[in-house]
Write a structure and sequence with these properties.
The protein has 481 residues and is an alpha/beta fold. 40% of the residues lie in helices and 23% in strands. The chain folds into two domains: 272 residues, Aldehyde Dehydrogenase, Chain A, domain 1 (3-Layer(aba) Sandwich); 202 residues, 3-Layer(aba) Sandwich (Aldehyde Dehydrogenase, Chain A, domain 2). The longest helix is centred in the first third of the chain and has 25 residues. The chain binds nicotinamide-adenine-dinucleotide.
C-alpha cells in the first residue's frame, strides 16, 4: 500500500508521530493508501524550514524564480496522465475530467504566475515638484495555504503558485481527503530543483495541521479555500493575530434562465454547470430559475438529458459522473435529498444512491438529481449541498428572480441566460455575486478577480491580486531638497 510522505525542507519524510490515517478510493469505497497523521510538531518543522529558506528565496531574481516554476509546468505536463489517473483514483472524478481540466489547470496556474511576476509593476506618485513617492511590494514571509478536496491539485496550485512566485515560502496543507496529487507534486518539486524549504507540504487533518498553521505566530498570512464554517473558525483565530486572510468559501449559486435565451446552449451548459465533477465545484449552479413561458419545456428537456447521463467507473471514458468524494459526503448529500422531500419537493430525476457491479459495488455513487416544487427560502434552497443535486423553479419577473437569487447567505457565482444584452448587463449589476457568467459557465481568464461576496469569502484570488496578497506594500516618500 502506498505511503504518502510529508515534504519538508526539500525531503520526503514520515510524520514525527509515525502515525498514518486511511486514504480511500471513492470509486471502490476501499482504502488504497496511507496519509501522514501529522500534527503541530510537523508544522513547526515546516515553518522552520520555510523561515530558513525565505531570506534567500525572497531575493532570488524574478527571472530565476520564474525559470524554476516553468520547469514545474513542464513536469506537470509530462506527467499529465499519471497525475490525472491519481486525481481520479483519489477523488472519484472521471479521469477524463482530470485530464482535460484539473491537471492542465494546475500547469496553467504555475505558468500564469511564473510569467506574471515578470510583468508586474509598481506605482510612483509625484507630489508637486520635489517629492516622489514610490511603492514597493515585498514578499510577506512564510505563508499558510490550505485547500479543499473538490479540485485537489487545481486549487492547491492556485494558491502555492502565486505565493512562491511572489517570493514567499510556504507551509501548505492539501485536504486529507485527497492528498495524492499534492504528494506526487512534491516529487516534481524535488526534480525541478525548487530550493529546499521554499515549499513544505504537511499532510493531515484540519483540526491538527490546519489549525496549527492558522495559529502559528510566524505565519503572517493564510490563504484558505474550503467551507464557510471552517473559514469562520480560521478567521476567529487569525484575526486577533492581525494575519492577512484570503478566504474562498461555500456557495449556493443561482442559474437564471430567461425565456429569450439560446435554448439549446442554455440546456447543454446547465447540464454541465449542475453535474460536472458530481456537482462538487464551488461554481456549480444548484438553484435553477426558469422564466415561466419556457419553464415546462426547459424542465422536461433538462430531465430527459439528465436521465441519460452515465454514472459509472471514473476510469471509463463513457462515464459522465464518477463517485462523490467520501462516504460521509455521500450521506450528507443523500440526507439533503430526504430533507427536500420533507419540504415538499418532487424528485424529477435521480434521488438515490447507485450501486455499481463488481469491484465498484461499495463505491459512493449518487444519481444526478433534480428537485421541483420547493420555495426559494426552504433549507434545501438555502444551504450548500455540494453534490449532484439541483432544484428547479419558475419565475415571472426580473425583480422576483433577483430576490430569489440574492436570498442566500452566499454570493460566489451566478449564471444568466438571455439574448437581451441590456437586461444581462442590468441583472449582472444587481446580483450579489463575485462572478457572473452571461450565456456561459466556467469560462476562466486567470487575470480576472476570483472570489465571493457575503459568506462566500473575503478577498479575491487571480491575476495580480493574488500576487499582491502575498506581499506587503511599502510606500517610500522622497523629498528632494
Ligand atoms: P473544509 O472546510 O472541510 O476543508 C478545507 C480544508 O481546510 C481542508 O484541507 C481541511 O483539512 C482544512 N481544515 C478543516 N478544519 C480546519 C481548521 N479548523 N483549521 C484550519 N484548516 C482546517 O472544506 P472541504 O469539505 O474540503 O471543501 C468543500 C468546501 O469548499 C465547500 O464548501 C466548497 O464550496 C468550498 N470551496 C470553495 C471554493 C471557492 O473558491 N470559493 C472552491 C472550492 C471549494
Amino acid at each position: 500500500m502506498q505511503m504518502i510522505k510529508n515534504y519538508i525542507n526539500g525531503e520526503l519524510i514520515e510524520p514525527i508521530s509515525g502515525t498514518y490515517s486511511n486514504n480511500y478510493n471513492p470509486s471502490t469505497g476501499k482504502v488504497y493508501s496511507l496519509i501522514p497523521d501529522s500534527d503541530e510538531k510537523d508544522v513547526e518543522l515546516a515553518v522552520k524550514a520555510a523561515e530558513t529558506a525565505f531570506p534567500s528565496w525572497s531575493v532570488t531574481p524574478k527571472e530565476e524564480r520564474s525559470r524554476i516554476l516553468l520547469k514545474l509546468v513542464s513536469l506537470i505536463e509530462r506527467d499529465l496522465h499519471k497525475l490525472a489517473l491519481a486525481e481520479s483514483t483519489d477523488n472519484g472524478k472521471p479521469v477524463k475530467l482530470a485530464t482535460l481540466v484539473d491537471i492542465p489547470r494546475a500547469a496553467s496556474n504555475f505558468h500564469f504566475f511564473a510569467t506574471g511576476i515578470l510583468h508586474d509593476s509598481t506605482e510612483a506618485h509625484l507630489m508637486e515638484d520635489k517629492v516622489i513617492n514610490y511603492t514597493i511590494r515585498q514578499p510577506i514571509g512564510v505563508v499558510g495555504c490550505i485547500s479543499p478536496w473538490n479540485l485537489p491539485l487545481y486549487l492547491f496550485t492556485w494558491k502555492i503558485a502565486p505565493a512562491i512566485a511572489a517570493g514567499c515560502c510556504v507551509v501548505a496543507k492539501p485536504s486529507e481527503v485527497t492528498p495524492m496529487t499534492a504528494y506526487l507534486f512534491s516529487e516534481l518539486c524535488i526534480e525541478a530543483g525548487l530550493p529546499k524549504g521554499v515549499l513544505n507540504i504537511v499532510h493531515g487533518f484540519g483540526h491538527k495541521v490546519g489549525s496549527a498553521i492558522t495559529a502559528h505566530p510566524k505565519i503572517p498570512a493564510i490563504s484558505f479555500t474550503g467551507g464557510t464554517a471552517t473559514g469562520a473558525q480560521i478567521a476567529k483565530v487569525a484575526a486577533p493575530m492581525f494575519k492577512k486572510l484570503s478566504l474562498e468559501l461555500g456557495g449556493k449559486n443561482p442559474n437564471i434562465i430567461f425565456a429569450d435565451c439560446d435554448f439549446e446552449n442554455a440546456l447543454k451548459t446547465t447540464i454541465q454547470s449542475s453535474f460536472a465533477n458530481q456537482g462538487q465545484i464551488c461554481l456549480c449552479g444548484s438553484r435553477i430559475f426558469v422564466e415561466r413561458p419556457i419553464y415546462e419545456k426547459f424542465r422536461d428537456a433538462f430531465v430527459e438529458k439528465t436521465k441519460k447521463l452515465v454514472v459509472g467507473n471514473p476510469k471509463d471514458e463513457k462515464s459522465n459522473l464518477g463517485a462523490v468524494v467520501s462516504e460521509a459526503h455521500m450521506n450528507k448529500v443523500l440526507s439533503y435529498i430526504e430533507l427536500a422531500k420533507e419540504e415538499g419537493g418532487k424528485i424529477l430525476a435521480g434521488g438515490h444512491r447507485i450501486i455499481l457491479d463488481g469491484d465498484l459495488s461499495e463505491g459512493w455513487y449518487i444519481a444526478p438529481t433534480i428537485i421541483e416544487g420547493l420555495s426559494f427560502d426552504c433549507r434545501t434552497n438555502q444551504e450548500e449541498i455540494f453534490g449532484p443535486v439541483v432544484t428547479i423553479m419558475p419565475f415571472d419577473t426580473e425583480e422576483e428572480v433577483l430576490a430569489y437569487a440574492n436570498s442566500t447567505q452566499y454570493g460566489l457565482a451566478a449564471t444568466v441566460w438571455t439574448e437581451n444584452l441590456t437586461r444581462a448587463h442590468r441583472v449582472a449589476g444587481k446580483l450579489q455575486s463575485g462572478i457572473v457568467w452571461i450565456n456561459c459557465w466556467l469560462l476562466r481568464d486567470l487575470r480576472t478577480p476570483f472570489g465571493g461576496m457575503k459568506n462566500s469569502g473575503v478577498g479575491r484570488e487571480g491575476g495580480f491580486e493574488a500576487l499582491h496578497f502575498f506581499t506587503e506594500a511599502k510606500n517610500v516618500c522622497i523629498k528632494i531638497a
